[in-house]
């Protein structure tokens, strides 16, 4: 299963809105189409959004009819702005777009054809590096997973959410590959059910034992002693170690704190935002009400009901046992341990 791939027509994406009922692919041949795919969550998950946006920018470049350097760069910057306006919380989107824009700005006096090639090469590199980072992170993080561990996860931080292999699910995958006989409990993750639709499907595909629970069952399982650790992904980690991730992650972390269960966040360095001091500074995406009032297009609440739909929450650093990154496992105090990671 590949989340994304490149072909002569453009960027091929596994349409995640249709899983698990249908495994189908879409091809985005313009930057605008990539932006729509990100906004509508046909591609989702912080690292996957970043890589897709990089390809979006490469598409803008390849289709540009500007032959003059300055006009070409203006067009690339406008496309980067358009792609960046899709989803505000996952920092990987902005990280990837900045990295792409830097390629153009630091290419000396390269001509437009060369810039086009450089941009596509960089998008390929971002995708490739993401998979490698996840594999490294998986190996490192798997040391924290005891043999026979019963692991709770929230949302989907797997191959589907990344270039491949996954962050939180990468850790689980690596432990499974090492023969540790892990069992996963997947929160269904309302409102969009990434746990039920994507994590359950992805783990089942790989024959990793998985049990689906609704979001309100995690506390019960912990009370009964059925969870040994929780591992989740992240959309943005600030310099003090606060972790933004899918709505409901904070609840899981509080429950872990109450029951003395380790709570880990797994994320590549592209998810760590050293420019933001603390979680309060993160913009939390608000999505449309229909995601809460409907399930697969079926109305489940009274018409006209008032709804709020924040897509993410922030888990304060004090509840995070360790952050698993591709550069190492970091522990509190995060202000120091994260700073060290970046020096
Ligand atoms: O709204 P989504 O589905 O893009 O949210 C995804 C998550 O919150 C993931 O846990 C996070 O991006 C980490 S993915 C490796």
Show the helix and strand layout:
Blueprint lengths: L3 E4 L2 E5 L10 E4 L2 H9 L6 H18 L5 H16 L6 H15 L6 H31 L7 E4 L14 H10 L5 E5 L6 H12 L4 E4 L4 H6 L5 E4 L3 E3 L4 E4 L2 H11 L3 E4 L5 E2 L16 H4 E2 L2 E2 L12 E4 L6 E4 L2 E3 L3 H8 L2
Parallel strand pairs: 4-5, 4-7, 5-6, 7-10, 8-11, 10-15
Antiparallel strand pairs: 1-2, 2-3, 8-9, 9-14, 12-13, 15-16
Helix pairs in contact: 1-2, 1-3, 2-3, 2-4, 2-5, 3-4, 4-5, 5-6
The structure holds 5-S-methyl-1-O-phosphono-5-thio-D-ribulose.
Task: Briefly summarize what is shown.
It is built from eleven helices and 16 strands. With 343 residues, it is an alpha/beta fold.
Description:
By secondary structure, the chain is of the alpha/beta class. Helix content is 41%, strand content 17%. A seven-stranded mixed sheet has the order 6-5-4-7-10-15-16, with helices on both faces. A four-stranded mixed sheet has the order 11-8-9-14, with helices on one face. It has a three-stranded antiparallel sheet with strand order 1-2-3, covered by helices on one side. Strand 4, helix 6 and strand 5 form a beta-alpha-beta unit. The site of 5-S-methyl-1-O-phosphono-5-thio-D-ribulose (MRU) has 17 residues, from helix 2 and strand 9. 5-S-methyl-1-O-phosphono-5-thio-D-ribulose binds next to helix 2 and strand 9.
